[in-house]
Design a protein that fits this description.
Length: about 425
């Protein structure tokens, strides 16, 4: 699957969005005028174009929705006039349709708006209703991005349920205090909120990150060597949804941090590595994993010593990689519990059925731990004073030592203590 960037869709009557970054994709859509040879444009700019996009069922997917609240002549030349002046909330009304359609996919989305004078629309009934629905679709405020007198504003503030008559005032106040500015000003805020939204989705079980991708990125961020940061600059994360309308995409890691990096880098900046590591650590914390006993049972099922390639047929690849790496650790622990002193990679390969070609097992080990050499990894297990990484190996190793090797943790190797 091809790697992609965060996608920004602009609803703006006057101009294309100018974000000044090559780490975002600007979504292009038909102009709606159906002229022969007409090229797609970088925004939804008027009412009849919106009608055309819906009527032709144009597929528009995005992560960031940029909204110009007011649509005014001469740029909006077709829509019937709203009220008596130029102050109108038509941009919010346009956005509601696209946000609602996107919400069906269950992919995360965030939106930002542009208005030079938000106070002129914050009391408009249509603006309040459209904003409330948009805020609910995005769960706006969960990231703490709207502050009123240093107090976070949230779409589902408890006062709405307790005092429903205050709802209109609540959303009107939210409009008045939204972050504002042109696309080049607010896109960084939108990327930051998207990152928070993705973490929220992972925590709630609405989205998952491919295990191998997340573990490799986290391991490299911890290593923080020049070669590790160079590899980080080219990594992507495969993300997929858990819903009736399932979705899957591969997101370029730099794009997820476009607000930090601004432009594509050949090597991840050293002064930006801590923020990356902290975020990846959060995703790992929120990512669900089977308990150690489940992984131990999967490994025990292949640890038969029948000298056949034990990983053949295991799918998906991410599970195969984990089982292969755990098998290496568990086999080594078994030898240690039996007080074997001369433990070699050749013995391991023979036991797991890879004596002729150890590459499949090495591939699994590399995907999970970053070690390409079985010999080096066995030496690491023997000499390290630190707990095994990733945590999955540590947790399963401890379980295996106690339950499968029937040994006391007091006498366990340091790597699982």
């Amino acid at each position: 699957m091809k790697s992609s960037l965060l996608r920004l869709f602009a609803i703006n009557d006057q101009e294309d969005p100018d974000v000044g970054s090559d780490l975002l994709e600007i979504v292009e859509v038909p102009d709606g005028e159906m002229k022969t040879g007409a090229k797609p444009i970088k925004r939804m700019k008027h009412w009849l174009q919106h009608v055309h996009l819906l009527g032709t069922q144009a597929r528009i997917t995005f992560d960031l929705l940029f909204i110009d609240i007011r649509f005014m002549p001469p740029y909006e030349a077709y829509a019937p006039k709203y009220g008596t002046g130029d102050d109108n909330p038509m941009g919010l009304l346009h956005a509601l349709t696209f946000a609602a359609r996107q919400d069906l996919s269950r992919e995360p989305l965030v939106w930002g708006y542009h208005s030079a004078e938000p106070l002129k629309v914050c009391n408009d009934p249509v603006a309040i209703m459209a904003f409330s629905l948009l805020a609910a679709l995005e769960q706006r405020g969960d990231a703490g991005d709207i502050l009123i007198d240093d107090t976070p504003w949230k779409w589902d503030d408890f006062g709405i349920n307790k005092y429903p008559k205050r709802a209109a005032e609540h959303f009107s106040t939210g409009i008045a205090h939204l972050p504002q500015g042109d696309a080049e000003v607010i896109w960084k805020d939108m990327v930051s909120r998207y990152r928070n939204k993705l973490a929220h989705y992972v925590k709630k079980g609405l989205a998952s990150i491919e295990y191998d991708d997340l573990e490799e990125a986290y391991r490299l961020s911890c290593e923080n060597s020049e070669s590790a940061r160079e590899r980080l600059a080219h990594l992507s994360l495969e993300i997929y949804g858990k819903s009736t309308h399932s979705w899957r995409r591969v997101l370029f890691l730099q794009s997820l941090f476009a607000d930090h990096l601004e432009y594509r880098k050949e090597i991840w900046p050293e002064d930006k590595i801590d923020g990356l590591k902290d975020y990846l650590s959060l995703l790992r914390k929120y990512s669900p994993s089977d308990p150690p006993e489940i992984w131990a049972a999967k490994v025990a099922a292949i640890m038969t010593g029948n000298q056949k390639a034990v990983l053949n047929g295991i799918r998906p690849k991410s599970e195969k990689n984990r089982i292969g790496a755990i098998a290496v650790v568990c086999w080594w622990l078994k030898q240690k519990s039996n007080h074997k002193s001369n433990i070699t990679a050749s013995q391991l390969l023979r036991f797991l059925g890879y004596e002729e070609n150890g590459r499949p097992l090495r591939n699994c080990l590399y995907a999970v731990t970053g070690y390409d050499s079985l010999e080096d990894y066995l030496e690491h297990l023997q000499t390290t004073m630190d707990p095994l990484k990733p945590t999955l190996l540590y947790d399963v190793g401890r379980y295996w030592w106690e339950k499968k090797c029937n040994a006391n943790l007091v006498h366990a190797p340091r790597c699982i203590q």
